[in-house]
C-alpha cells in the first residue's frame, strides 16, 4: 500500500499511453481515471511517444509528502496500479487515512522499502535483464 510514486517521473510510453488510448485493446481510456486528468495527459502523452516524461505526482514530484494520496483519491494516479488502490477495501482505507491529519506514510515508508528489498531476485532462467524495461525480451 505504501507507494513511492510521491517522487519521480515516468515516460509516457507504454504504461501511461496504454491507459489513455488502448486500455482494453479497443482504443479506449481506462474508466477509473478522472476524465479531466486523462484529457490533460493526452495533451502531453501522444501514442507511441517514447521520449516525453511526466511527473508521477504533478506539482509535488520532487517532494516526499502525502500529496500523492490526495491525487489517487481524486482518481488522478498516473499508473493503473495507482488507480487500483481504490478498488479494494483495505488499500482504499489506507489511501484515505493518508490524507487525514493522522497520516502514517512517513513512518510506513522505511519498513515497506526494507520488506520490498527482501523480495527474491530472479536469476538464470527464472528471470531476465530487459533491454527495454517496459518490454519482455
Briefly summarize what is shown:
The chain is mainly alpha-helical and 137 residues long.
Order of helices and strands: EHHEHHHH
Q: Which overall shape is indicated by the principal axes computed on the Cα atoms?
A: globular
CATH superfamily: Peroxidase, domain 2
Largest sheet: 2 strands, antiparallel
Strand neighbour order, sheet with most strands: 1-2
Global mean pLDDT: 89
**CATH classification, class level:** Mainly Alpha
How far apart the termini lie comes to 29 Å
Low-confidence stretches: none
CATH architecture: Orthogonal Bundle
Walk me through what this model shows:
With 137 residues, the chain is mainly alpha-helical. It has a single domain, classed as Peroxidase, domain 2 (Orthogonal Bundle). The chain has six helices and two strands. It has helices spanning 15-21, 35-44, 67-73, 80-84, 89-99, 105-117; strands at 9-11, 53-55. A two-stranded antiparallel ribbon has the order 1-2. Helix 3 crosses helix 5 (89-99). It starts with 8 loop residues before the first strand and ends in a 20-residue tail after the last helix. The mean pLDDT is 89. Residues 1-137 form the Plant heme peroxidase family profile domain. This is peroxidase. Belongs to the peroxidase family. Heme b binds at residue 5. Keywords: Calcium, Disulfide bond, Heme, Iron, Metal-binding, Oxidoreductase, Peroxidase.
Tags for this model:
Peroxidase, domain 2, 39% helix, globular, 6 helices, 137 residues, mainly alpha
